[in-house]
Write a structure and sequence with these properties.
- By secondary structure, the chain is an all-alpha fold.
- It has one domain: Hypothetical protein af1432 (Orthogonal Bundle).
- The protein contains ten helices and two strands.
- The chain has a two-stranded antiparallel ribbon with strand order 1-2.
- The radius of gyration is 17 Å and the shape is globular.
- The two termini are 27 Å apart.
Length: 211
């Protein structure tokens, strides 16, 4: 099925990915991950970037698997858990190790702004897709018809912003030690009492997306 001129490659691997994520993740995360793929691919088309669509689909669909009970460890960041799940799957598919490393890196870095956009298109595009769906970034580069087509196929549902924040909380609350963040923000806050770091949840709630 083509959505906004973008298709998921019709291969045995992508069909297995779809089935596995649908069976493992909540509908909220399944539809979010699907939208991330379409927004990532639309960005790739707009920017004229070359990438493997199968691998991009894998990265996008597995990027939040670390929030699921089946793939959540007690010690690793959820991004690493998702990256490890994707790596295990791709190794079973006998994918080249260099490609597996790119998918792993794309998932591991998707919540680390300012770095992925300087890396391989697969890595940059996955983060761009996440930023579009969760934070409302890059909207000005999307035609309204493209955005509406993606959301019609994979609805955000009511109160998506609060629901996705809750999904994050549910997926990581048992391992708060893994949320250690940007060292530079800690340093500035220590030396400048007036500094107020950016807040992820506030950015979601203030984004241009409805609910």
């Amino acid at each position: 099925m083509s959505i906004a001129g973008i298709q998921i490659p019709d291969t045995a691997m992508t069909r297995e990915i779809t089935e596995r994520v649908r069976d493992t993740a909540s509908p909220l995360l399944f539809h979010h991950s699907s939208r991330v793929y379409y927004f990532a691919a639309l960005a790739g088309r707009r920017l004229g970037l070359k990438y493997d669509a199968e691998l991009l689909y894998c990265g996008c669909m597995f990027h939040d698997m670390g929030l699921t009970h089946a793939h959540s460890s007690d010690c690793c960041r959820f991004e690493v858990d998702g990256a490890n799940a994707a790596r295990d799957f791709l190794q079973q598919q006998r994918i080249d190790e260099r490609d597996i490393e790119r998918v792993w890196t794309a998932i591991a870095l998707h919540t680390t702004p300012g770095i992925p956009e300087h890396m391989h298109p697969l890595i940059a595009l996955l983060t761009a897709g996440v930023e579009t769906d969760v934070l409302g970034l890059h909207h000005d580069a999307l035609a309204a018809g493209e955005r509406d087509a993606v959301v019609a196929a994979h609805p955000r549902g009511e109160h998506f912003k609060e629901a996705i924040i809750q999904a994050f909380h549910d997926g990581i609350r048992h391992k708060p030690q893994t949320t250690f963040g940007n060292v530079k923000a800690d340093v500035i806050a220590d030396k400048d009492p007036a500094f107020r770091p950016g807040n992820f949840c506030s950015l979601i709630r203030q984004s241009g997306w409805p609910s």
